[in-house]
Amino acid sequence: MTNKVDRLKSKGLFIVILSLCFGGVYIRGAFVPEQLVAFNAIAFVECSFLLIVGFYEKGIKLNYMDIKFTLIFISLTALFLLTELFAEKSLVSIIKCYGGLLVPLILVHVRIKELENFQVFFVKFMKFFNNFIGVLLILAIAGYLFENKIAIFTATILKSSQLMSIVSSRRFVSFLGHPLYNTEFFVAYFGLNAVYQKYLDKKKSFWYVLISLAGVLLTGSKTGIVLILMGTLMLNISNLKWLLTYLVAVVGLYFGGFFDLIISRLLNETLTTGRSEKWIELINMVDIDINWFYGNGHGSVFELNDIVRRASAAFEYPFKLFPYEFGIIFTIILYMVLFVFPAYYFLKRKQYTILVIFGMLVLDVNSYNGLGLYQDHMYTYCFFLCLILNVSRYAHLKKII
Predict the structure, then answer these.
(1) How far apart are CA 192 and CA 66, in angstroms?
(2) How many domains, in total, are found in the chain?
(3) pTM higher than 0.85, yes or no?
(4) How far apart are CA 174 and CA 338, in angstroms?
(5) Does residue 168 belong to any structural domain of this protein?
(6) How far apart are CA 201 and CA 38, in angstroms?
């Protein structure tokens, strides 16, 4: 039965990533009614399916981890509903937000039990994902060479005025959406290839570093470029040959003009792109109401725009957004699940490569408001975290250091 369940889980995970890569919010926007654009129905159904499969596999024999996850999930759901009902949100908006915020957490608990089954799944996934990122990079370079004409074409086809407004910045925009969301995919590509080469493939290659570096540079993400450079340094600190190889690659990209956009942004913007300055302005003008057990409801930060211009920009960090919209206790529990528990497992197992990769992903998703949009971003992060946790388990049981 384990093999059958593992196959069901593998198929479910593949459907989730396909829905994120080829059925994202901007692609949905061209085909579905506006009020349903944010709701990823495919990912929602597949996560629900994975939850059912998990309980079917266990029967009534739930272990400690299953019970802990179930209690945490129920607690988060109760706190979420308390806030949403207190804020008098509509049933439809509650379901959409729940689907984009809490349902993705199911992915964090998914484990492909048989190590051989996971290896087969992960190898297939990496082939798909590497090809997908290759296509993204080709689009990014083509956009760079042709002055973003491809991005303009994409925004026109998808009928997205929001994407069109970003195009003028010359940052890479794709069918995935915002440059920072594209950055997350490039950072994940870097991390997944690093752990794949260490724990499964055993072949060292510098191409994934070059590809992720070039991709992030073309998105213009200041945080992203720092993460890729620091990650490369930390993972190769004891290998002078590879460090010199990467240094040559960086110099080549610099003289190729790939650093022009990021240098321009660093010279003309603050490091936080005005978010920290807006926070200081806001707290000097408004009493920010943050409670322990409930918040002001999803989307409530945008109501502050009526008081202070672009006040919502002050909450474009999830650790500021979630306490305001859902309360302090909700945020603490959510962050324990998404960030603290995984870090504890990696430290306990002394898997420092995985810990570095995980840290990069955590810093990236906490550097902008993607997780707080309640669209595809939480699904994406939880999917990548699911893979990293499964690699950690694989390496631990295989006793690979």
Answers:
(1) 26
(2) 1
(3) yes
(4) 27
(5) yes
(6) 37
How distant, in Å, are the alpha carbons of 174, 292, 376 from that of 29? 14, 36, 13
Cα–Cα distances in Å, from 3 out to 11, 127, 157, 162, 358?
Answer: 12, 22, 42, 45, 28
Structure tokens belonging to residue 170: 């010359």
Q: What is the pLDDT of residues 53-108, one digit of tens each?
A: 877 666 556 666 778 888 999 999 999 999 999 888 889 999 999 999 999 999 99
224 and 183 in contact (C-beta within 8 Å)?
yes
The span from the CA of 157 to the CA of 176, in Å, is 13
pLDDT of residue 201: 78
Highest mean pLDDT among 274-283, 286-295, 372-381: 372-381
**Could you tell me if residue 56 is inside a domain?**
no
What pLDDT digit, counting tens, does each position of 130-156 carry? 999 999 999 999 888 887 777 787 777
Residue 348 lies in a domain: yes
CA distance readout (Å), 345 to 195, 200, 389: 16, 20, 9
Neighbours of 256 (CB within 10 A): 13
Structural domain boundaries, residue 140: 120-398
Residue 27 lies in a domain: no
Q: What is the pLDDT of residues 318-337, one digit of tens each?
A: 998 999 899 999 999 999 99
Biggest distance spanned by C-alpha atoms of the chain: 61
d(CA 136, CA 74): 38
